């Protein structure tokens, strides 16, 4: 490996580390999940993530600082969306590993078919994985 390749590898490792550090907080991970496939206003994020406006603002500032989200202003409303394919790819892989089940079509029913009374406390189901995201199988 020559010096240029080593420097590139170090830059890539730094970028991956930044992404993984941001995702290591469950609130930021949930925010990023809610942005997978669509942009959302701060008010929408506040409702679907369940954080106070102050706490949400702090987490969004960290995600902006780490260059994982981008913003768009429309009048008084600020919209957030994911920035870059790497974030969406990692989120899609996490979804495949931890969220996808055979019963995704009926998330409000229990195994015996009765209504699940905890659904009111549950966050919205994650959107379908974007077609451009990579699916990486875990190593065993």
CATH C-level name: Mainly Alpha
Distance between termini?
28 Å
Radius of gyration: 17 Å
The number of helical runs is 5
Q: Provide the CATH architecture.
A: Orthogonal Bundle
Strand content: 5-15%
Widest sheet: strand order?
A: 1-3-2
Total count of domains: 1
Number of strands: 3
Net shape = globular
The portion of residues assigned to helices is 40-55%
Question: Whole-number average pLDDT?
Answer: 79
- The fold-level CATH name is Arc Repressor Mutant, subunit A
Pfam families: HTH_5 (PF01022)
Region (Disordered): 103-140
InterPro entries: ArsR-like_HTH, HTH_ArsR_DNA-bd_dom, Metal_resp_trans_reg, WH-like_DNA-bd_sf, WH_DNA-bd_sf
Protein name: DNA-binding transcriptional ArsR family regulator
Q: How would you characterize the overall build of this protein?
A:
The chain is globular, with a radius of gyration of 17 Å. Residues 105-140 have low confidence and may be disordered. The relative contact order is 0.14. It is built from five helices and three strands, in the order ααβααββα. By secondary structure, it is mainly α. Strands 1-3-2 form a three-stranded antiparallel β-sheet. The two termini are 28 Å apart. β2 (69-74) and β3 form a beta hairpin. It has a single domain, classed as Orthogonal Bundle (Arc Repressor Mutant, subunit A). The protein has helices at 3-23, 26-35, 42-49, 53-65, 85-98; strands spanning 40-41, 69-74, 77-82.
Using brief descriptors, characterize the structure shown.
140 residues, mainly alpha, Arc Repressor Mutant, subunit A, 5 helices, 10% strand, transcription, WH_DNA-bd_sf, Metal_resp_trans_reg
């Amino acid at each position: 490996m020559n010096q240029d390749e080593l420097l590139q590898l170090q830059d890539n490792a730094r970028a991956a580390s930044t992404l993984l550090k941001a995702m290591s907080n469950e609130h930021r991970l949930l925010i990023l999940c809610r942005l997978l496939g669509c942009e959302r206003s701060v008010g929408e994020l506040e409702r679907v993530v369940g954080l106070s406006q102050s706490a949400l603002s702090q987490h969004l500032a960290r995600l902006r600082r780490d260059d994982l989200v981008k913003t768009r202003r429309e009048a008084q409303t600020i919209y957030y969306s994911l920035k870059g394919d790497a974030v969406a790819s990692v989120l899609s892989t996490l979804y495949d590993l931890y969220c996808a089940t055979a019963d995704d079509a009926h998330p409000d029913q229990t195994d015996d078919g009765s209504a699940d009374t905890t659904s009111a406390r549950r966050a919205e189901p994650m959107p379908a994985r974007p077609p451009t995201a990579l699916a990486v199988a875990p190593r065993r």
